[in-house]
Design goal:
259 residues, alpha/beta
Length: 259
């Protein structure tokens, strides 16, 4: 750990946690670099300290998980076991963990006492989806990430208008510790994903064939209609686009400082 932090500070001249300027510097450093080369450098040189992958094991998750596993299968992979997932997602999760050889898979579960106090009838999703996401996703993830300096996500800019300016590196605004978010697939297209799945013979999530293009908890996920954003099926009918783990990205050049 000490060696990893020392290398990180030497390369980026920063403290153990990150600032907006660090994210800008990393975006500029890896501008024009392939996704695999960027990940190999970041992980191999421990540039972002202790890092974990946060995965939903959803429609497109196999691509990022395969990339990570091909570089370092010991990187921790965190999954939010909300208790509301489709059975198909849980089966797909187990399949990928075994097939990709993920060595440090972790299920993060909500606190049973909190669930009993705030969602005893398990119907909070139907009248307060933000509150449901908070107790089942946001709080468990915050606890699970306490010892990590950075997270790797599978978000892509094409998924929704609220992600169109997604950078490769950004600061996690959901907390105040300066944790870094790494989005290796930020500039990938649907064609890129399809080609990667085909090249590496990756199994598809079983619900994709039924029209579920972004897959979260079962009660709040619906089929995506032709012409809609891939995430249009999430929280349909609610003014809600993210669960609270991620926030919408402002338009503009993510690699330039704002004044």
């Amino acid at each position: 750990m000490a060696e990893a932090v020392a290398r990180k500070i030497d390369r980026l001249d920063i403290a153990p946690r990150f600032t907006e300027q660090d994210a800008i510097r990393l975006n500029n450093m890896f501008r024009g670099t392939s996704t695999e080369e960027m990940l190999r450098t970041v992980l191999g040189e421990h540039m972002v300290g202790d890092v974990a992958v946060v995965s939903s094991f959803g429609a497109e998750s196999a691509a990022l998980l395969h990339l990570i596993a091909s570089i370092d299968p010991s990187v921790p992979v965190l999954f939010l076991e909300t208790g509301k997932h489709f059975p198909e997602t849980l089966a797909y999760r187990d399949l990928l963990v075994e097939r990709l050889g993920l060595k440090d898979f972790r299920n993060l579960r909500p606190d049973p006492e909190v669930l009993a106090a705030r969602d005893a009838n398990e119907l909070r999703w139907s009248f307060d989806p933000d509150g449901c996401c908070d107790i089942r996703k946001v709080v468990p993830l915050a606890k699970g990430l306490a010892d990590f300096d950075a997270t790797i996500t599978g978000r892509k800019a094409f998924q929704a208008s609220t992600r169109s300016a997604l950078p490769r590196f950004e600061i996690d605004t959901s907390d105040t510790v300066g944790r870094l978010k790494v989005n290796p697939l930020a500039d990938w297209t649907r064609a890129d994903l399809d080609a990667y799945f085909a090249k590496h013979d990756l199994p598809a999530h079983p619900l994709v064939a039924q029209g579920y293009l972004s897959i979260g908890c079962a009660p709040c996920t619906s089929v995506v209609k032709p012409g809609e954003d891939p995430r249009a099926g999430r929280w349909r009918g609610w003014d809600k686009t993210e669960c609270g783990i991620h926030t919408p990205i402002a338009d503009g050049d993510p690699n330039q400082p704002s004044f």
